[in-house]
Design goal:
Blueprint lengths: L8 E12 L6 H4 L5 E7 L9 E11 L8 E5 L5 E7 L6 E13 L10
Antiparallel strand pairs: 1-6, 2-5, 3-6, 4-5
Length: 116
Amino acid sequence: MKKLRTHLIGVDQGYVSLFSDFEDGGEMWTGEGQREVRRSVTFSDSFSAVPVVHVGLALWDMDHGANQRADLQADAVTAEGFDLVFRTWGDSRVARLHATWLAIGELTSEDQWQVD
């Protein structure tokens, strides 16, 4: 459990279109080649510490004739942003995918003093 040590809490959110591979025969749709997509997300303002990030599927367009496998994660989370990562494997064919994210964490206040 992440415990927040301040009364000043920030919440940031976003929507990311990760890919649309069915239009141009991309790797996620053909089922060949690189099966991972990574997008860098930058928060609208920096947190004072690493926030908690939740990601979710907003649009998932899969081929009905193949297995539907998906892994969606927030990776390399910092106070400034994170990498949104989607992976699939095997015979899965993904036409397009959109994701949402939500970050919650501590913010720095002008009233906070740091004494060394």
